[in-house]
Amino acid sequence: MTGKYIGKIEVGAIISTILLLxxxxxxxxxxxxxxDKSQVNAWFNANVKPASARVGTIDPALAQAEAEPKxxxxxxxxxxxxxxxxxxxxxxxxxxxxRVIISIGPGVxxxxxxxxxxxxxxxxIGDPKSMANLTFDGTAKQYGTVDSATLIVESDFFVAANxxxxxxxPKPDGEMEGAQGVSLRVSGDKAAFYNCxxxxxQNTLCDDKGNHFFMNCYxxxxxxxxxxxxxxxxxxxxxxxxxxxxxTVITAQDRENNEQDHTGFSFVQCKITGTAKGAYxxxxxxxxxxxxxxxxxxxxxxxxxxxxxxxxxxxxxxxFYGEYKCSGLGAASAARVPYSxxxxxxxxxxxxxLGFIDGSKWxxxxxxxxxxxxxxxxxxxAQLYE
Length: 386
What we know:
Elements: H1 2-27, H2 40-47, H3 60-67, E1 70-74, H4 85-90, E2 100-104, E3 108-110, E4 113-115, E5 122-126, E6 132-136, H5 140-143, E7 151-153, E8 159-161, E9 163-167, E10 184-186, E11 191-194, E12 197-199, E13 205-207, E14 211-215, E15 218-221, E16 226-228, E17 231-235, E18 238-241, E19 249-253, E20 264-268, E21 271-274, E22 280-283, E23 290-294, E24 297-298, E25 307-308, E26 320-324, E27 340-342, H6 345-349, E28 368-370, E29 374-376
Parallel strand pairs: 1-2, 2-5, 3-6, 4-7, 5-8, 6-9, 7-10, 8-11, 9-12, 10-13, 11-14, 12-15, 13-16, 14-17, 15-18, 16-19, 17-20, 18-21, 19-22, 20-23, 21-24, 22-25, 23-26, 26-27
Antiparallel strand pairs: 28-29
């Protein structure tokens, strides 16, 4: 009797150990963004290596482009190749096949900038200690919503780092038609943004279409200020919700049916701050939006309900709104709408890796920039000297 009892204990202990180890393996999956914020940079460095270390695994066109990059210097008042960003972009040939790094000196560049689809492999990079300010005051009334952006990126393989991207049109009052203005529209595929501050009010960021990655960015707005049909991973990014007399909303994701896998927003290790009260994490502007927040610190600016079907109850049956291990006063789940989900680890995992944006084939670390002295591109031999 005693031997059988001991045997059961031993078998139970073995099973418990196996289950525990299985959970440890899952939680330590090297592809999964870690729950511990202090480990995120190490995770990124381990999973996003320079092009030179990933020969044969990244997109062949990208590998070729990174092999011989060209560097253009923009400086206001002279001393560079150009004094405006627009002129520098115009100098890039149609059908470009090489990485072109446009280093932008400090200052306010009041330009409406567009990078055409025919000019892939462009990088805009500023000085992290004195970030260039790309600014314009376009509105929907003047240009239409998506074309009102200060910076429009239609090309593939775009990179931006260390930039302010701002729409300085007056804050919409909810009465004047067409007062909204976009700061950034990204319509190309395989675009990455590092340490960029994207600032506006209504419709700040048009995450239009394609795979995109945002890391250590700051995005500020009021109503639907991240919207569009892109498939994007936002990592370590602050979402600042400014007070508005209208209902404030962070996302208006535009997926139209549940068969579409090329669209959705995943926010991981982000934080939500601001001056607004009762801001929704998202509202269903289209029938099947897909938005997930994971490991995100949510302040009390977030509405207790969390999400909105946008006065269209039937969309509650087709949308996908999920949260996973978020924290802060705004993350309390007790009053969340019934059509949102607190995700299981299994379901959340697909939103916690670079696989969500197919990033292993195209995402590269940002250039290591030393403005006015030397630019050393990680994974290449390109250099710019004074």
